[in-house]
Design goal:
Largest sheet: none
Distance between the termini: 12 Å
Order of helices and strands: HHHHHH
Number of strands: 0
Radius of gyration: 16 Å
Number of domains: 1
Amino acid sequence: MKNNKTAYWLITGVISAFILFSAWYSGTHKVEFTQKLGFPEYFRIELTVAKILGVIVLLIPQVSNRVKEWVYVSFSVCLISAFIAKVNSGYPLSGVAEPISVFIIMTILLWYLNKLNKTPNTKDAISNN
């Protein structure tokens, strides 16, 4: 049971770290976000704040799993949208591959978290972190 809890927090930490880095990057690289991708300034700020709030929600143990699921859905939408925006903005393959790679990794990690939650006698331990 302790290993499952450790795996849960490790996976949550990895996803949170990437999203925080993404929030930092979009918050500090205004020119790339607004001119190269063509997004308005207010959207850059809104997206940065939303990512930070999403990470905070993931890291609070008392938040229900249902709410955390929606945070992951929101992160997935952001990653897929980033992929589409980069494809349409003429980014090189490395820039286009990054958001979709993170999406795939996040999907695998979430599948593993779901598997942990369905393991007998671990659901309560993980959801009541």
